[in-house]
Amino acid sequence: MAAPDTGFVPTHVVPHDGLAAWETPDVSRPTVPLDPLLPVQLTERRGDWGRIVCHNGWSAWVDGRLLVPVPQSPPMAGAPPTRTTDPRPLLARVKESLGRYWLAMEDMAAGKADGETFRQRTRGLRAGMVIDGDAAWLYDAEQERWVYCDGTRIDTYAVSSAPSADEAPATPTEIVDWPRESR
């Protein structure tokens, strides 16, 4: 017998290692953690916090950046294409940080700088990138998160800071309509 239609449509699933949950967007009010891969519906955002609802109607607040988006149907034919975050500015910041580190390392290797000068020149640099064919993982130091880019979309992959209540734009996960020459 099929379950009754409750109107529940999952928008995300809980990451494979589960997810802490809170009664309110406040880390001092924890509740029961969510099971791995549990389908949930994201209903509200407050900065990094996301209010989720489960199939049975139970709701909680979670670090919304850690939820894994459920793939959605492609846009309807003839509808205008949606845009998502362009990874090129993040790639430019990674390139600039790597270049500054490279130059400081070259000067150190050539004897033009000592250890203290090297530390001063590299202080505050934070960059990260893994490229595997058409996929890239980029560290966004400004947002303290790793993002995943496959050429068609960019998604938050992991975060290194606690959720905040600051209103910040969520990372979109729609199909990208970048100019063909930039791909």
Write a concise keyword list for the protein shown above.
alpha+beta, disordered C terminus, single chain, 183 residues, 5-stranded antiparallel sheet, 2 helices, 4-stranded antiparallel sheet
Please list the strands of the largest sheet in the order they lie side by side. 4-3-2-1-5
Percent range of helical residues = 10-25%
Number of helices: 2
Oligomeric category: single chain
Strand fraction band?
A: 15-25%
What is the overall shape?
elongated
- How many extended strands? 9
The largest pleated sheet is described as: 5 strands, antiparallel
Q: H/E order of the elements?
A: EEEEEHHEEEE
Structural class: alpha+beta
Query: Span from first to last CA?
Result: 48 Å
Q: Compute the average pLDDT.
A: 77
**Uncertain residue ranges:** 73-84, 168-183
Radius of gyration of CA atoms, rounded to a whole number: 21 Å
